[in-house]
Amino acid sequence: MSTDIVTSRDSPLSRFIAVIPAGGVGTRLWPLSRAAAPKFLHDLTGSGSTLLRATYDRLEPLAGKGVLVVTGVAHRNAVCSQLPEVLESDLVLESEPKDSGAAIGLAAAILYQRDPDTIMGSFAADQVISPDELFQDAVREAIYTAAAGKIVTIGIKPTHPSTGFGYIRSGENLSIANAPSAQAVVEFVEKPSEDVAQQYVDSGEYVWNAGMFVAPVSLMLQHLEANQPELFKGLTEIAQAWDTPDRDEVTARIWPTLPKIAIDYAVAEPAAAAGDVAVVPGTFRWDDVGDFASVGRLNSAKEVDDVTVLGEGARVFTENASGVVVTDTKRVIALIGIKDVVIVDTPDALLVTTMAHSQRVKAAVDALKASGDTDVL
């Protein structure tokens, strides 16, 4: 284990606490990922570790036991069984999803009440990252940059002109000690068209926005108060009651009334306009496992022919076939003369599509929801 977590109290690294927002259903990974068992609870890489567990293990050398997990009430038992190290007081349960502004904002407010000098880092539970060492190097740079008074995002150097991610335009180097690659953020830009994405990649000035933030909790809350005063007020009231017997009553009363807004709009973008945001470019491999095509691309699971197979005891026969098979059943699946297929077999739902159309699985989920077939969602 790294020695960072036993650094002197003077070091910014000693003030670091990691926050893992574990939310979202991952509708493009239906029927494997569902409301009751979202994608972060699954091993989607064939590594033997769920996405949530891998996220915790990646952060432990930096944060030690200083980890807060924000998740839905429905996932409490599953999260606790996968992360037995997390204390009850460090498990933040949402009675209903309120988007990342409330989830990350509440974590910041709780940490501020406990120690206003805390530097927090927020890292989603459903991302695949390798190697861990390069990720940890980037987070250390981000912590030193945050200590200099910045909200820091870790951007991913783009490998192709993706239209599925937002981008961050970076500016001048900030010359911060122990953070040689930290740069000013000029602007956040929404998901672009393919032509525009290609221009971004060619320019070398843009990185993908992976939604990772490292910041002094005081600065996060300062921008939240300025831009979303109603959300700030509610979260502060919950946080003040968090480590008291009044926690449940106050949370139950206030949480449902909070506005829904993403942390990017509530804090990051206005803070960037004020010159308070920096970016540390990450050179590690990163994927948000958004669809089954990415599952196939990422997998170290066994290959049968050119088919990636995920599932314990899977019984798959292939001949002149390629694609991805994910199975929760013992049913024999035979693929003959079919290319780039995606098959997901569960006891009560079967998905058949192609790699090229894997982003469109969300439309099937929406249609099922509209027709009232919620028992399979």
Describe this structure in words.
Helix content is 33%, strand content 26%. By secondary structure, it is α/β, with parallel strands linked by helices. The strands form four sheets. It has a five-stranded mixed barrel, surrounded by four helices. A five-stranded mixed sheet has the order 12-13-15-17-18, covered by helices on one side. It has a two-stranded antiparallel sheet with strand order 5-11. β17 and β18 (349-354) form a beta hairpin. The longest helix has 16 residues, at 99-114.
Layout of secondary structure:
Blueprint: E1 16-22, H1 51-63, E2 67-72, H2 76-82, E3 91-94, H3 99-114, E4 119-122, E5 128-130, H4 132-147, E6 151-156, E7 167-173, E8 183-189, H5 194-203, E9 206-216, H6 217-227, H7 229-242, H8 247-254, H9 263-273, E10 277-282, E11 285-287, H10 292-298, E12 303-304, E13 306-310, E14 315-319, E15 322-327, E16 332-336, E17 341-346, E18 349-354, H11 361-370
Parallel strand pairs: 1-2, 1-4, 2-3, 6-10, 13-15, 14-16, 15-17
Antiparallel strand pairs: 4-9, 5-11, 6-9, 7-8, 7-9, 8-10, 12-13, 17-18
